[in-house]
Amino acid sequence: MDGIRYPRKRFxxxxxxxxxxxxxxxxxxxxxxxxxxxxxxxxxxxxEIFGIRPAPLPQRRQxxxxxxxxxxxxxxxxxYSFRLAEMGYRVLLVDLDSQGHATKCIxxxxxxxxxxxxxVLVRKMPVKDVVLRTPxxxxxxxxxxxxxxxxxxxxxxxxxxxLKLRKALEEVATDYDFVIFDAPPSFGLLNLNAIxxxxxxxxxxxxxxxxxxxxKLLFETIAELExxxxxxxxxxxxxxxxxxxxxxxxxxxREALETxxxxxxxxxxxxxxxxxxxxxxxxxxxxxxxxxxxGAEDVQSLIDEILPRLPGGAWAMEKVG
Length: 321
Fold this sequence. Notes:
Layout lengths: L4 E3 H7 L4 H10 L8 E3 H11 L9 E5 L8 H14 L4 E5 L5 H5 L11 H5 L5 H4 L1 E2 L5 E4 L8 H5 L8 H5 L9 E5 L6 H9 L2 E6 L4 H20 L5 E6 L7 H14 L12 H8 L4 H4 L4 H13 L6 H7 L2
Parallel strand pairs: 3-7, 3-8, 4-6, 4-7, 8-9
Antiparallel strand pairs: 1-2, 5-6
Helix pairs in contact: 4-15
């Protein structure tokens, strides 16, 4: 993320200003504007100086999960997290997958990081000692690497093992507006912890009929957890991803989702977008890689749809910029 740079026009847009207004405010605060591009760290500094921040929200914990792999879950969760941070919300992205893909999408190598969630849940290290602070002050990361692959075994003999993550996050309950979990496509103790800690569940699905089996299994699992462990998710949002309306099977899959899961299906659809893969390969969130891409536009649409549903979210949206 250190290499992210914004042209002045885009930088101003993120702050909700015109280029002219940006210049006036710089002059008012004695900021000498020499460069035509600004680094991502300046976004946080300017927000602080100008007092341009959304109203704080009661912390919302949101889990991106699908038992079926290859649904674009990590691309969505990292784009969603980065954009919320760009907008000025305080975001903690938690990489739960031992492959560390969310960590890589944000621009870091998991194997180079000394600590992961394993240190929090198993070794009882404070969350604040594990968090990786990015150049964008509003975005923090708990990275992941292959050491996370044994966490389910380590949690197995512990009492209250399914609540370890929820309890660990209590110490940062006022530090973040959003905690975003990017989960592996499996069910084990770690994902159980994530479900028990989450307020909202986002389920990315592809527009094909293989996705329906994974959805059925996921909903059955959630229902069992609600009954056995007395935890009810406040929102379940199915996000249709990589949608190409020109194909018959994609259109048919969307119709089937609307028929069988209409109450959970997001109105916002994320269209097929090659820029997602290109951005991920370079470790740059799509909003910094190409904010005009279909992927960026659609994730923004999803955020605009979800924020008003949250406590205080509609009012906070009006205050962004």
